[in-house]
Amino acid sequence: MEDNNKSFRDHITRTLSLALEPIESVRAGWESGSAAFDAVDAYSDIDLNFIVDDQCSLEALYGVAEGALAEVSAITVAHSVPPGRYYKLSEGGEFLFVDLCFFREGTSDHPLEVERHGVVRPLFDKGDWLHPKPLNRAALDAKREARYRELRDWFAVSQSFVRKAILRGQEVEALASFWGYTLRPLAELLRMRFCPVRWDFVGMRYLDRDLPSEVYDEFRALVFVTDLSELEAKLKTAEAWGARLVRELDTDARRG
Fold first, then answer.
1. Among candidates 229, 226, 246, 238, which has minimal Cα distance to 180?
2. Does a structural domain hold residue 205?
3. Distance of CA 167 to the CA centre of its chain
4. How many angstroms separate the CA atoms of 11 and 200, rounded?
5. pLDDT tens digit string along 198-226?
């Protein structure tokens, strides 16, 4: 089954590459995502990216790509999530999506920083487009610092939204607030502390990669709750952890 999955993935990647490479306005293509971290498994998407001319029609390129995909398998769903589109294929099984992104050559958003996006797997390169991109640490640090200041002021006081829902016995609202006001910002603080170069990555996805295993286990223990009394207890634990992280990040900032 694993070999069949790899063969199907390779077939999709090769077909799209062969369809797009001959187009003059397409400069380079590469696979990213799990492949860039050597973490592909039976549930991984196929993340394909292409650098293209500033003036070319993206709709035309998506049309070419969709025609190529249809040669492999019928497309059952196409869903736009900027900067790209997700495709579900009838023969791709329950979990496989093709995530296809086009990046203009004149923009600065090419995701080629190794520290953040891993080591890309080139498909083709008509110039020197796919060399690792230097990480703009100053810009990343400034963005992280702005968000940190916001969380430093807001995290503690915003826990009242969770607590009053608990006191009112509003189970659904309490759980939703716990996720929104407690767990998600706590995950941000944890990434700032332990993986600052990827502090802003995709909510809680890949936390198991970005946090030390013992820290991940501690966070995971907060996630699953059975009733309001357990939620109240875990809220107190999360509040204390968030306050501790703020102090640690303050200390790190002073040392830096």
1. 238
2. yes
3. 35
4. 33
5. 999 877 888 999 999 999 999 999 999 99
Mention every residue, 6+ apart, whose C-beta is less than 8 A from residue 148: 189, 192, 249
Report the C-alpha gap between 233 and 208 in whole angstroms.
24
Any idea how long the chain is? 256
Range of the domain at 116: 2-125
Residue 71 tokens read as: 């040669």
In a domain, 39, yes or no: yes
Quote the longest CA-to-CA distance of the chain. 63
Angstrom distances, CA of residue 116 to CA of 75, 97, 124, 205, 224: 31, 22, 21, 14, 29
Rounded Cα–Cα distance for residues 168 and 153 (Å): 25
pLDDT in tens, 143-170: 999 999 999 999 999 999 999 999 999 9
Enter the tokens of residue 177.
């607030």
My answer on whether 146 and 236 are in the same domain is: yes
- Please tell me whether residues 246 and 141 are part of one structural domain: yes
* Parallel, antiparallel or unpaired: strands 46-52 and 26-32: antiparallel
Cα 69 from Cα 65, distance rounded (Å)? 6
Q: Residues with Cβ < 8 Å from 114, sequence gap 6 or more?
A: 132, 135
Q: Which two tokens stand for residue 101?
A: 């992104």
190: its two tokens = 């944890």
Distance from C-alpha of 11 to C-alpha of 3, rounded to nearest angstrom: 12
Residues near 252 by beta carbon (within 8 Å), at least 6 away in sequence: 193
List the structure tokens of 142. 């400034």
